[in-house]
Amino acid sequence: MSGHSKWSQIKRQKGANDAKRGAVFTKVAREISMAARAGGADPDANFKLRLAMEKARAVNMPADNIKRAIERAAGAGDGEQYEEIVYEGYGPGGVAILVEAATDNRNRTAADVRAIFTKAGGQLAGSGAVAWQFVPRGLIGIPRQRHDADEVALLAIDAGADDVDTEGDPIEVFTDPGDLETVRRALEAAGVDVESSELTMHARNTVEVDAAHARQNLRLIEHLEDHDDVQRVTANFEIPDEVFAEAASV
Length: 250
Description:
Largest sheet: 4 strands, antiparallel
Strand content: 15-25%
CATH topology of the domain at 4-73: Arc Repressor Mutant, subunit A
Distance between the termini: 24 Å
CATH superfamily of the domain at 4-73: Integrase, N-terminal zinc-binding domain
Helix content: 40-55%
Radius of gyration: 18 Å
CATH class of the domain at 4-73: Mainly Alpha
C-alpha cells in the first residue's frame, strides 16, 4: 500500500481548512441523499447511508442538515435529483485519474470536468479507459497516536481485513467492501478508536512521476475536488517526498 498514507495525510490537512467547510457540507449532504434514496432512510438497514452520516458527523455537520438531506431523499422536499457519474482521465505524465461526481446536470458537469483536465495539461478519456486500474476497497482510519500500530494490525487481520498500512497517520486498514462493517465493528469492540470508515477506490498499481508532474497532478486534483459536483478523486501516482512535504505544509 505504498504511498497511500501520504494521500490520507494531505486529505486530512485539506479537510481541516474551515474556509471550505460549506462546500464539504454540500458534498456530504448529496452523498446522504443519494444513499437514502437508493437504500432507504433507515441507517440501521442502509450501510451506505450509515457511512455517509458518519462522514457528516466527522466534519461537524449539524444534525439538522443531516435530517434535511434524508428528508429530501424521502420526498419530504422538492430538492434536486442527483445521479452518480464516474469520469475517467489522464493527468500530466500519464497518471490515471477517476472522478466520482453527483450531478443534476450531466452535460454541465462533463463540460466542467473536461475543461479542468485540459487546463491542467491532462485529458478526459472514455469510459473504461482507466477504471480497470482501480478496485473498490473498504478503508478504515485509526489515529496512530492512540494505539500501537502492530496491535491494531493483528486485530484487523484477525477480524478479516485484507491489509494494514502501519507507516502513516492514520493507520489504514483495508478490507473487501463487503467486510468493511464487520471489521469496523470488531475493531471498535476491541477498544480501537475508529477515526473514519468509508468505501473508496484504490489503485492496483502506482506509477512514479517527477516532482514537476506530481505538482501538476496535485493542482489538477485540487481543482477537480473544488468543483461542487465532484465527490471524490482517486489517482494512481506516488507523491515524491519533497512534493509531499510542500503539500502537507499548506
